[in-house]
Amino acid sequence: MSNKIINYKVQPGGKFTGDITVPGDKSISHRSIMLGSLADGITKVSGFLEGDDAIATLNAFKAMGVKIEGPINGEVSIHGVGMQGLQKPAADIYLGNSGTSMRLMSGLLSGQDFDVTLTGDKSLSGRPMKRVTDPLARMGAKIDTADGKAPLRIHGGNTLHAIQYDMPIASAQVKSCLLLAGMYAQGKTTITEPGITRDHTERMLQAFQYPVEVDANKVSLEGGHRLKACELHVPGDISSAAFFMVGASIAKDSALLLKNVGINPTRTGVIDILKLMNGDITIVKEYQRGGEVVADILVRSAELKGINIPAHLVPLAIDEFPVLFVAAACAEGQTVLTGAKELRVKESDRIQVMVDGLLTLGIDAKPTEDGIIIQGGQLTSGTVHSHDDHRIAMAFAMAGLRAEGEIIIEDCANVATSFPGFIEMAAKAGLSIAAETQS
Ligand code: S3P
Asked: Average of pLDDT values for 374-397?
């Protein structure tokens, strides 16, 4: 992981045309390493995201004795060690910025017979972990935290028991953590979600032939089954494509084709919200690949309108709000988001950080306890801070398409966690963007 300071400089204007293929889905890439490592046999993955977060997961499993070849051009071969085959790592496992690695692995590692400590960077060490350690403790896991936060010291050798868990928050990370622990528990673990969250874990467990039951908002599995290696194709990440969907919507005279984007129905909130805002988005080709739905998506310029974002779409677009706030800044009228308190505990406090940046850029934006109110207007120019949050950096880069003057975005190195090659792809599509490195 890089210690360099990278600032983006974005010149105003530009239009988005042509076609692009965004890198692989981050959520699916993490899960491919976790399940592939525990499977019997060799799992071959294509389209793997070569970003810092997914690589942190890959290195973690290598440190626990799994032979993993690649990634080379997105191809990874994982020599699975079976459900009981992981080995105690020689040192603490550092997971960088990656909340998904830490939360999912805490479940999986609670079922091992060795102790292991998970650490992370400053942002990850400030994020809430009790949401996973509390239900894991109910299953019999023993995890020491630093007042509910990382580092997590996970003690091995405990017998886990299945639980019935009603999740207090809609979180795919919590659900997935408990499903992974449930594979090691005695009995049937059932998790009830208060709202729909991404279901990549359930889909991938099925691809590895691990029996899972899904019934409306309940998902259950029994401990003690095995995973069978398989071939996985990781589609492009809709959360990365979202920057370009908003970019092509707000820039004048644009028509951009986004190829090979995962449109799993638990992830398409950004498309629904942009369409409600009068966005011009067409699915031109749709196909199934490895248990996931994939599409080519055409996005054209549109006169966006402010809306009240429907509550049920919040978990389906949870990572896309920074850039949706930029869309709202360019829309006519007011956009109101509520029920999105979770945004305050992502890689940064995404409500406050976006409000601060939008105000700097001349937009009337107000934070609320669980959301934001944005009055569409004219983006001006100025220097904003990403607060080391990849999605904040990329969201403000898109704002340049409709700004009056230059936008400087400070501290963008973490874009590498989810979107290697972002600058090049944004420039190819039509954004005037350059990176400046300070050492
Ligand atoms: C993720 C789930 C989401 C999302 C995160 C990735 C996952 O978090 O914000 O970027 O891969 O399961 P929550 O489940 O905590 O909402």
From this structure: 98
- E-assigned strands of 33-122? 40-46, 67-72, 75-81, 93-94, 116-119
Task: Identify the residues whose C-beta falls under 6 Å from ligand 1.
Answer: 27, 100, 171-173, 176, 197-198, 318-319, 342
- The residue whose C-alpha atom lies closest to atom 11 belonging to ligand 1 is 27
Among candidate residues 199, 233, 267, the one where a domain is terminated: 233
Q: CATH number, domain at 429?
A: 3.65.10.10
229 lies in the same domain as 239: no
Which of 95, 101, 198, 348 to probe ligand 1 with, by most ligand atoms within 8 A of CB?
198
**Residue 253, domain extent:** 5-24+235-438
Protein residue with least CA distance to atom 9, ligand 1? 319
Nearest CA owner, ligand 1 atom 13: 171
Side-chain half-sphere of 233: how many Cα atoms within 13 Å? 12
Domain count, the chain: 2
Which residue reads 């989810």 in tokens? 418
The strand pair at 185-186 and 213-215 is best described as unpaired
**pLDDT at position 289, please?**
86
Query: Which of 169, 204, 233 is at the close of a domain?
Result: 233
Instruction: Please give the mean pLDDT across all residues of the chain.
Output: 97
